[in-house]
Amino acid sequence: MQTFAVELGRLMGLSQPELESLKAGSLLHDIGKLAVPEHILCKPGKLTRDEFEKMAIHPRIGAEIIETVHFPYPLAAVVRSHHEKYDGTGYPDRLKGEEIPLAARILSVVDCFDALTSDRPYRRPLSKEEALRYIQSEVGTSYDPRVVQVLTENLDRMETLAAEVNRTRETWSAPDKRKVNRGDDRLSRDTNEVRRSIMENVSSAHKELYALYEIAQGMAKSLNLDEALSFMASKIASLLHYRCFVVYLRDPERKVLKARHVTGHDASRLLNHEVPLGERMSGWAAVHRMPLQGRAHADPVSRDGARSDLEELLARGSIERLENAIVAPLLDGDALTGVLALYDRPDQPYEEDHLRVISIIAKHVASAVKNAVLYEKTHESALTDPLTSLPNARYLFVSFEEEISRAVRQQVPLSIIELDVNNFKDVNDRYGHPAGDRILRGLARAIRSQLRGCDTCVRYAGDEFIVTVPGVGQGEIAKVEQRIQAAIENHKFAVHGGKGLRISVSMGSASFPEDGRSFEALIAVADARMYEVKFARRQRPKDDPEGYQRFTGRRSVPVN
Length: 560
What we know:
Elements: H1 2-11, H2 16-28, H3 38-41, H4 49-55, H5 58-69, H6 75-81, H7 102-116, H8 128-137, H9 145-173, H10 177-181, H11 185-221, H12 225-236, E1 244-251, E2 256-264, H13 267-270, E3 274-276, H14 280-288, E4 292-295, H15 311-316, E5 324-332, E6 335-344, H16 352-382, H17 393-410, E7 414-421, H18 424-431, H19 433-448, E8 456-461, E9 464-470, H20 474-489, E10 493-494, E11 500-501, E12 505-512, H21 519-536, E13 550-551, E14 556-557
Antiparallel strand pairs: 1-2, 1-6, 2-3, 4-5, 5-6, 7-9, 7-12, 8-9, 10-11, 13-14
Helix pairs in contact: 1-2, 1-7, 1-9, 2-6, 2-7, 5-6, 5-11, 6-7, 7-8, 11-12, 11-16, 12-16, 18-19
């Protein structure tokens, strides 16, 4: 293959550096297949779409590996482009015609000819005539017509040349042992050292590139932010050391970075930790759009004048002495999503090469993090009432079956409370909808103030709310209702002009499993009981010595 490629290049007028790149490329063009799973490489039949996507990364990976070795001729472009097609349907860059380097166009034709005429476990080798006919059938589609023409015109001569080269190699492969023993052992050792050095560089580059590829692919496939960030933390560990891995997300309203995800030591103490934008290492990196490395002491400042992200925590002794840090902004174009930060102990410094790696990682994952954040916000907004910030009815429908399943699994009761504001329409008619909205927001706060962390208050519709109370059954749910009732009726809801209202509500409850075993059955029972209370209520106006108006649900009474 190498002889064919170099001779074709010479016949087509390539320069000496281009011929050298073609010579090396004929040997190294598939080095990127190190990143392709073996079962795909060995599969005899047609690849599936997913398998082809994994196979199609190898020209790009190969080129990136070659770039790390610093060959003195343009080899990386040849390796990257040897699977491009003349009509622009190849990969990885969909180059077309003359956009594809000539050396890559030559290598593509020779690679195909070599593959077709070589023995494979799943097929016999084709004759040179059969292989040539196939290549000619792909002229203008896969292959450059000019390259195929030169190959066709010179095939016999090139075969003769290749045979002569092979005979020469065979002659040199079995020299007189006495001459070898008298040969230059130092040259042999030097050659082996160079070869070993190159392979170590290639192996290291392959490991890094494949890890980066896995990070980029894995992040792109997940829109769950926590899953995506956990995956990224696990993969980064193969490239960069850290004691603690933190992803800060930007809060534009409060002008801070907030630790959304933490993996590693002291994770619980660092979660939700805030760093002001423009201050400390991560804040500096965010504002200046630049990565930064340094020692994160509690007292000294870094070389760029940015103090430690963990200054207060370190000073208080709340966390381990994570004095080394490396940070990089997550930028999607010019938009700042957050900052990627790694912290480690005093004896584990970060070097310049670590700065390069974290910059590449941040560049690869920034868009995926932004998309996951956007998806999370969209998902939350779809399940959240915008007025009260409570979960909405859609959330209740989605989550209630899970609540019932948990109650069955743990063999505990589950109750719901349905709550409705008495004559809320009159409030809107008298004071206006903005005042009504303020009352609903205040009502939501009053209800939540009486609930546990495991309880959920949902704005069900209009002025109706539903509270789910896991672990509380028929005998205890009335106490919860009384607490909520008292909190609401003792609260004064400001409307405008220094005035306010007291409101009343009607409630009804139902418990699983006594009142029903489904969401619909429990809601029906709670709804019926709520309306019994509503119709039975007899409310009377009372004096309000504090100068507020009391709204009874029937009428309002002004108070001096």
